[in-house]
Design a protein that fits this description.
Largest sheet: none
Helix content: over 70%
Number of strands: 0
Structural class: mainly alpha
Distance between the termini: 15 Å
């Protein structure tokens, strides 16, 4: 990957690291499926306004609506629903470790479905070290949070698998602007989520009067979703599916750094050790240092 790709990967990791924090706040008052709807709908509206301001056409999405609905299903509806539901029963730390398995699933899916991204020993070794690093970063807290129902853990792993399929499928949209792809995906996700939410919940169940909850929803939608997916699709187009999926290894790193910077949390030695393992995994997967 280029220096620009690495920069986008780090920024995307920071944005998605914050998403676990804001989702944990919002899901306390808003049911998981309703939170998915709010997240994708607010993000879609924001991106449509951006397209209008920039004079960018939405026509490429209208030309292949089925493809964008499938992308929305794999990249938004299924994983968001599974993660938010799982987080009602397990902690954010444990969820982020399961989420960090996404590159492993991506490598396996890409090996089966693409001609140019095949399994290699450095990739497998790097991903394994990265997942281990994510677990080490959680430290003793991971052991105390190992409880909880099995279905909740499998839900987050299922979300990681869905992301693996989504990032490989997203390669087909390389010729379309990342902003348009993000807008089409989130619009499709909104279309899919509206009937689901109104089937399971009454209007009174999905509305809260809490200002902090709505602020968390707005940040989650506009920064950790709308802007983040523009970066994500740009990264898929320029660096490939496997490399784009590496962002999930950076999510626990960014979550800890954000907590240290803005919440006054102390950086523990085991957290630093886990970060070093994650950095080592990215160096191994990148491979340039060894080639030199």
């Amino acid at each position: 990957m280029s220096v620009k790709d690495w920069g986008q990967l780090v920024l995307l990791g920071a944005l998605w690291g914050g998403s676990f924090f804001f989702a944990r706040i919002a899901v306390a008052d808003i049911p998981p499926l309703a939170l998915v709807l709010y997240r994708v709908a607010v993000a879609a509206v924001g991106l449509h306004l951006w397209l209008r301001v920039r004079g960018i056409s939405f026509a490429p999405v209208l030309a292949q609506p089925g493809a964008f609905l499938l992308l929305a299903l794999l990249n938004n509806v299924i994983p968001f629903s599974l993660i938010f539901t799982g987080q009602t029963q397990i902690g954010a730390g444990l969820a982020s470790v399961f989420y960090a398995t996404t590159p492993l699933w991506t490598i396996l899916v890409a090996n089966l479905l693409t001609p140019d991204e095949k399994i290699s020993p450095p990739k497998i070794a790097g991903v394994a070290i990265g997942i281990a690093g994510a677990a080490v970063m959680i430290g003793p807290g991971l052991l105390s949070n190992l409880g909880g129902p099995t279905w909740a853990k499998l839900a987050v792993i299922g979300a990681a698998l869905s992301y693996g399929f989504a990032v490989v499928y997203a390669k087909r949209f390389r010729g379309i602007s990342p902003t348009v792809v993000a807008t089409g995906q989130l619009t499709g996700a909104t279309v899919l989520m509206v009937p689901i939410v109104f089937l399971f919940y009454s209007p009174a169940e999905i509305v809260t009067a809490s200002v902090p909850i709505w602020m968390a929803v707005l940040v989650l939608a506009l920064l950790s979703t709308a802007f983040a997916f523009i970066l994500y699709f740009n990264l898929v187009a320029s660096a490939g599916a496997t490399n784009a999926s590496l962002v999930t290894l950076l999510v626990p790193v960014s979550a800890i750094i954000l907590g240290t910077a803005f919440l006054g949390e102390r950086l523990e030695p085991f957290e630093l050790g886990g970060m070093l393992l994650v950095m080592a995994s990215l160096v191994i997967i990148d491979g340039r240092l060894f080639r030199r």
